[in-house]
Amino acid sequence: MKLSRVFACLSLLLIIGVGDSLPQHNPQVSQMVTDFGMKVFREVVQTSGDGNVVFSPYGIASVLAMLQLTTGGNTREQIQAAMEYSIEEKGLAPALRKLYKELMAPWNKDEFSTANAIFIQRDMELVQGFMPYFFKVFRSMIKQVDFTEGERARFIMNDWVQRHTKGMISNLLEEGTVDQLTKMVLVNALYFKGQWKLPFPTKGTHHRLFHKSDGSTVSVPMMAQTNKFNCTEFLTPSGHYYDIVELPYHGDTLSMFIAAPYEKEMPLSALTNILDAQLISQWKGNMTKAPRLLILPKFSLESEADLKRPLENLGMKDMFRPGQADFSRLSDKEMLYVSQALQKVKIEVNESGTVASSTTAIVVSARMAPQEIIVDRPFLFVVRHNPTGEGLENTRWLPIPLSCAPLGKSCLY
User: Fold this and answer.
1) pLDDT tens-digit profile of 284-304?
2) Which CATH number fits domain 202-299+350-405: 3.40.50.10300, 2.30.39.10, 3.40.50.9100, 3.10.20.340?
3) pTM of the entire predicted model
4) Is 28-42+50-194+301-348 a domain of CATH 2.60.40.3950?
């Protein structure tokens, strides 16, 4: 069942609250990552019309952190200004790696994995020292592929995504997404499977009316249970009240927060426009456990987002401009720019819990096609011994049909 208008922030929920009791945890880092992801999320919501949106803030933050390392000049400054941090800031990269380890730690109990990859054209001349420096910052090896074999390169990257999302996302890069101009693709993949600490009884699921934002209703399967939940109320600056409920997963380190407006016709934009990490922390801090009858739709969502316009709206414009993009820290031989930025997310919520996966990609291409040399006319070829300069063979090639060749003469094809 797909809801009329649902906003689900997959990775936001996977960062906030993780490791709260751990002395090693750096809440400032997780807040910076989440806040930037939420800024992109708000832009995606505004450009999505009335469609469902499910988004991974952690995914876009991860990919753009890698992109930072490849850019220079105004391009780099615009990315850093939008993200409000530099990946090379002292102590930041280790803190991000520590956050990553906490997300992957066994004490979370729920199944969670995330991975980053950077695929680069295998014969592209990189700035000296880039590969070891990239590994030092991200602890990730650069994967070299041949984008001139577009379909094979696409298969390699899609296979990587499929493996790291447990098969939930199998075709991130569709046919024609990469070609001979593609020089680099940066990818983040995320997978999450969590069981509710308080599962919904399947016998309590019944069809009920769901009120859509346009005032109409639709009958959908609704899960129901009566239990003690952490909950609170929230009043937006515009004067709209929301019920906030926390649904913990069985490991108690991850939770889903649900915000529902009092008025059925109230647009979610009143809340999404102000949503950030600090606000969710305020919800958490003001919650009290109380008995509630919780009725929640059983749903699945699949969302695709073109991130170019949302990122441009946040000030990251130069990287999309062939004449202005600066990737000089990656290669000083290639004239590169970001040709595509996209994200695909799938999520399923049922009586037992949540299964979700996201993948985010940025495609970097050359600014212009290489000059073509098409050998489709008579030509001359020479086989030369380079050390001596001796010509070993010098032949003119003419496409003469065998039946027309002079008797006793061989033909070249």
Assistant:
1) 889 999 999 998 889 888 889
2) 2.30.39.10
3) 0.82
4) no
